[in-house]
């Protein structure tokens, strides 16, 4: 990371630059470089790689059950045959301590990824993350926030992690009411940082998966009501629209970092 915004120098040198990433999904190598040239890194979650939909050989699932079964479950989920996907999962997990196997694999990934995070990093959870494990791996240079706000370079950032409940049943899905309460707790901010997008069709539709992901109505209402300068989020890997305005707010999908390896930059 470069010198902080309060260091001495010209006006240009004192500008604040923040890099934002989301949906890291195991890309530790790129994560280690994500803060280069910035005063701070903001990470919007989904560090865990359970199954790579582009490369079915990568992730926890194929490590446990093989690529052929990964191919099968991706096909079922893509076709929205969720009950058949769950049935296949039940068959594969029979006789296996599912929780122990997943937690062990996630711990291995978290150890590598949290060690790669630059200082300072401000982070919140994605829907596939396991929040209970984060305190074990987040070092003193990483501040974890959820339903909270923090000042960075003179601007107020609010953070809300997790996703809403879906048939996928990922680890950190919460109810609409719980999510709305966290949005309310954050209140008015300059930059509203969430894992999932506001509930706008252009921002929630994934053009490759060919389905709508769940966005938050409470987040959309908060954007309209509190009018932050920016709303930044991830979750939808290949959105129909990556950037649009809602009133005065610039809404930005910061990208599928696992695929691009490039952070989105915010500077003032």
On the 0 to 100 scale, the average pLDDT is 94
Output the helix-strand order. Answer: EHEHHHHEHEEEEEHEHEEHEEEHE
Query: How are the strands ordered across the major sheet?
Result: 5-6-9-12-14-13
Radius of gyration using CA atoms only: 18 Å
- Which of globular, elongated, flat, extended, rod-shaped describes the shape? globular
In this structure, how is the largest beta sheet organized? 6 strands, mixed
Helical segment count: 10
Helix content: 25-40%
Overall description:
α3 (67-78) packs antiparallel against α4 (82-93) and α7 (176-186) runs parallel beside α9 (217-226). 38% of the residues are buried. The strands form four sheets. This protein has a six-stranded mixed beta sheet, covered by helices on one side. Strands 4-3-2-1-15 form a five-stranded mixed beta sheet, with no helix packed on it. It is built from ten helices and 15 strands. It has helices at residues 28-33, 60-65, 67-78, 82-93, 98-116, 134-137, 176-186, 201-204, 217-226, 257-260; strands spanning 17-21, 40-43, 121-123, 142-144, 148-152, 155-160, 163-164, 173-174, 191-194, 205-206, 211-212, 230-233, 243-246, 249-253, 264-267. The chain is α/β, with parallel strands linked by helices.
